[in-house]
Specification:
single chain, mainly alpha, globular
Length: about 180
């Protein structure tokens, strides 16, 4: 049974926490810098009733692969349904990093690869391409969640929207005039 740590934070608090960590994926925050212990943030996103907040797990983990060490603590806080979400979205982030590693490195710099924590537990086949792994994961998430959704499209939607936003932000920053210290 999960412990009773709070995972029902307001939407704006979670968006503010993501923004504070440099994960520009969602709108709707208050603009106030907010921090959470990583395990609490992971659990709060996974347990959110809002699909867009749950989906933010993918860009969060791609931006902060060091949070992989906090996933086991987050799982201890979660209901079984939210734990499935965290395991599957974590695994999606793992495979998406492999699929988009060149583009991700151009946007965010080289980041360590997320360790593959759940493929065995999720009974994923071994030795797959990222595309095949994402499809196998989508099939498995459908079984585990009991929800008939295009899970693979959901994973791709998360990374494509996040990368598009990152690219726009880079273009915007490059368009700003360069400040000179020579005055």
């Amino acid at each position: 049974m999960p412990n009773t740590a709070k995972t029902n934070h307001r939407q704006s608090e979670l968006v503010d926490a993501l923004d504070t960590l440099g994960v520009r994926f969602l709108r709707g925050g208050s603009g106030t810098p907010t921090t959470f212990v990583p395990a609490t943030l992971l659990a709060s996103l996974a347990a959110s009733p809002e699909a867009r907040l749950r989906l933010a797990l993918i860009p969060l983990l791609l931006t902060h692969p060091e949070f992989a060490e906090d996933v086991p603590a987050a799982l201890q806080i979660l209901s079984s349904d939210a734990a499935v979400t965290l395991r599957c979205y974590y695994t999606a982030a793992h495979w998406l990093h492999l699929k988009y590693r060149t583009r991700l490195a151009a946007m965010c710099g080289q980041k360590p690869q997320l360790p593959d924590l759940f493929s065995e537990e999720l009974r994923m086949p071994k030795q797959m391409t990222p595309d095949a792994a994402l499809q196998a994961l989508a099939n498995r998430q459908q079984e585990l969640s009991g929800r008939t959704l295009n899970w693979r499209g959901t994973y791709e939607h998360a990374i494509q929207n996040w990368l598009r936003f990152m690219e726009q932000e880079i273009r915007w920053q490059q368009s700003l005039p360069i400040k000179s210290n020579l005055s």
